[in-house]
UniProtKB/TrEMBL annotation:
Keywords: Aminotransferase, Pyridoxal phosphate, Transferase
Family membership: Belongs to the DegT/DnrJ/EryC1 family.
GO molecular function, one term: transaminase activity
PANTHER family: DTDP-4-AMINO-4,6-DIDEOXYGALACTOSE TRANSAMINASE, TRANSAMINASE
InterPro entries in UniProt: DegT/StrS_aminotransferase, PyrdxlP-dep_Trfase, PyrdxlP-dep_Trfase_major, PyrdxlP-dep_Trfase_small
Protein name, per record: Aminotransferase class V-fold PLP-dependent enzyme
Phylogenetic placement of the source organism: Bacteria, Bacillati, Bacillota, Clostridia, Eubacteriales
Amino acid sequence: MPIQVLKPKFHVDECLEEIRECLEKGWTGLGFKTVEFEEQWKKYTGHKNAYYLNSNTVGLYMAVQILKMQNGWNDGDEIISTPITFISTNHAIKKQNMVARFADVDEYLCLDPVDVEKKINNKTRAVIFVGYGGRVGQLDKIIEICRKHNLKLILDAAHMSGTRVNGICPGTWDGIDVTVYSYQAVKNLPTADSGMICFAEDKYDKIARELGWLGINKDTYARTGDKGTYKWKYDVEYVGQKDHGNSIMAAIALVQLKYLDEDNAYRRELARCYDKLFANNPKIRVVDAPYKDECSYHIYEIQVDDRDGLMDALAANDIYAGVHYRDNTEYEMYAYDHGTCPNAHCVSQKIITMPLHLWLTKADVEEIAHLVNKFTK
Ligand SMILES: *Cc1c(COP(=O)(O)O)cnc(C)c1O
């Protein structure tokens, strides 16, 4: 059996049972399970607001859209972001006719507060911080900087489902305006595709709920009474999108959420195995995580000099490592900032994501680490 870098594991029978409930009730869309999952997610994380979406991407788009609209930002204004991320993060800025201004990353591959502060100018309106690999990095310092310079802060928490710091979900920290999670197929809480947007302020949550359903001010579920009666009249306040999640995805999410802490604990065990097996190899630099014991470990990355050679050597043994991610300033549309983030650029050429998921055994990890050590010697 080939070993993939990421592979979801579902509690199949329980998921099917939850989905069956939707099919029997005849309610597969917005409402019902989506409402139930929003409530469960709020309980699990401590977020005050949670609106279930069809992806993290639409959530990031909406986060910038709403903050721009509500704070009077202009086209051409800037948001500071990281070059080491999935392009959703930076497209969210560009989509609203704003400019992503790239800042460099630290040893956790998260935004480096020192460089962030250097990149602030009179057009800067916000920062998007990616909790890369589930790591919280120096988010606390970024919050301070945003306070000091009166900037909004968006947290792309696509990797952070289940990450805590001293028992608290960092997405709920004071000073973060909006946190967006992903439940895409290979994330820590997998569905097929869905996500959650959690605004700190109630008024933004309300706008999100309207924008995410074409701008209609009352959703179908809310308009359906206890007796199945249906109030058809509504108003339309915005030219919105169709971003909301559905009950089939939420049914899967409800089941997977029950196992998230257990799943993440196993990911951490595997990560500790890798740590130990790489500890005596000076040719390998493991990307370190702060608050290791509470990190979601969405991915486990190492840096090696001959990254591409190592990928080939592993593939020859039917082991498929990955790369997360290519320096975004290498893409033409973001090339205007190429060369401004030397650390990110260097890292993106050396970084390799080791297989880490719930199908792996410790013996698998030992085999993989053995091959990596042999290759790098
Ligand atoms: C996966 C991912 C996204 C996008 O999530 P979707 O739910 O697939 O839209 C955004 N940012 C990062 C860092 C990601 O890894």
